[in-house]
Design brief:
Layout lengths: L3 E8 L4 E2 L4 E2 L7 E10 L23 E9 L5 E5 L10 E2 L5 E5 L11 E5 L4 E4 L5 E9 L4 E3 L6 H6 L2 E3 L9 H6 L1 E3 L5 E2 L2 E5 L13 E4 L1 E2 L2 E9 L9 E10 L1 E3 L13 E7 L7 E8 L8 E10 L5 E2 L2 E5 L3 H4 L5 E8 L4
Parallel strand pairs: 1-27, 3-6, 4-17, 19-27
Antiparallel strand pairs: 1-2, 4-9, 4-10, 5-6, 5-7, 5-11, 8-9, 11-14, 12-13, 13-21, 14-18, 15-16, 19-23, 20-22, 20-24, 24-25, 24-26
Length: 344
């Protein structure tokens, strides 16, 4: 269960304060390994408490797969990054939306038995070289194509682990949150429950004639859940016409999503516009990529517009995430509460 982090903003009259090249095929004596992929049925599986009123969400099934197997040979050298048959460097491996099936995990050494997942039922194969002693897989899936860039590190393993992604320019700013919502990846620091020292994407029986991997991918972006409340005493002069979240990041680490120290080169804004039903009390949910220099908190910047006189105010709030780099595996569910007690 992931922790839920809470932040509160109180608005005042004078001051606003905040509570090698990849290889798709190898020699003829290679082994073809099946890979079975899955995603959580909802974010509740790793984030929420059962019964939370906001736990229901609709997600788009992934259409693009980016999968990298790092091969270690018999001499103990990491010598190849292998991708599935048919995977395109830009658009990834195309997934069939009709091949996703809801099921319940029966056995898995990296996941709690009994969790509901969507499992991809079509066949995905990777050709393994004969010279192999260990294989680890890092994978990502998305509804929209993403641009994946491996790092420039000398180590092939680090090139993949430190890979970044970016949303394409075809995804408009207003749609970035929805696109991020439907991106999943394998967190590099998640371990097998049966072996706390082994990355959960390590292939089982890798040197045998029947190597296999079944792996669940998790949300790469964090959920941002914002509530606002205009004090009844000022509602004649104040209501929330719109809230614009600014400086949001359109990319970051793909397999280390809790270790972004800066925003990506592309940033965007996302606006929620109210109506008479929620201009005084409301709630809005989206997905964002948290980042901070200290890897300990996330500063959310925003612009509030008063619907009475269209004046704007630009508060920010800092959401504490604990010691992210040392302990966090999953991206969090972040709660923000905007309490408007004085007009602006």
């Amino acid at each position: 269960m992931r922790k839920i982090y809470f932040s509160c903003i109180t608005l005042g009259a004078a001051l606003l304060t905040a509570c090698s090249s990849d290889t798709a095929g190898v020699s003829d004596d290679s082994i073809r390994m099946p890979v079975i992929l899955a995603i959580p049925v909802s974010q509740q599986m790793e984030t929420r408490a059962i019964g939370d009123p906001g736990s229901y969400e609709k997600f788009v099934m992934p259409k693009h797969l980016y999968l990298y197997l790092i091969n270690t040979n018999n001499e103990g050298t990491v010598d190849q990054i292998i991708t599935p048959e048919g995977m395109d460097a830009t658009n990834g491996y195309t997934l069939d939306e009709e091949k996703w099936r809801k099921t319940v995990i029966s056995t898995a050494d990296f996941q709690t038995t009994g969790d509901s997942i969507y499992r991809y039922t079509d066949q995905i194969n990777i050709n393994l070289p004969a010279n192999r002693t260990q294989g680890v897989v890092y994978a990502a899936m998305s509804a929209e194509p993403i641009t994946v860039t491996k790092s420039t590190a000398t180590s092939l393993s680090d090139q993949v682990r430190d890979a970044t992604f970016a949303l394409p320019s075809s995804v408009a700013d207003a749609d970035c949150g929805e696109a991020l919502k439907n991106i999943y990846s394998t967190p590099y620091n998640l371990k097998k429950t049966t072996d706390a020292s082994t990355y959960y994407g390590t292939v089982s029986d890798y040197t045998s004639n029947t190597p296999h991997l079944e792996i669940v991918l998790y949300h790469t972006a964090a959920k941002l859940d914002v509530n606002w409340n205009v004090d009844p005493s000022i509602q004649s002069t104040t209501n929330v016409k719109s809230i614009t979240f600014t400086g949001l990041s359109a990319g970051g680490f793909l397999f280390k999503p809790m270790e972004n120290t800066t925003a990506a080169s592309r940033t965007y804004s996302e606006t929620v516009t109210t109506d008479p039903g929620n201009q005084y009390y409301g709630r809005y949910e989206t997905y964002v990529l948290p980042f901070s220099a200290d890897l300990d908190s996330y500063t959310l910047n925003m612009t509030l517009t008063n619907g009475v006189d269209t004046k704007e105010s630009s508060p920010s709030t800092t959401i504490s995430l604990g010691n992210k780099q040392a302990t966090a595996i999953f991206t969090p569910w972040m709660l923000g509460k905007i309490q408007i007690k004085n007009t602006w």
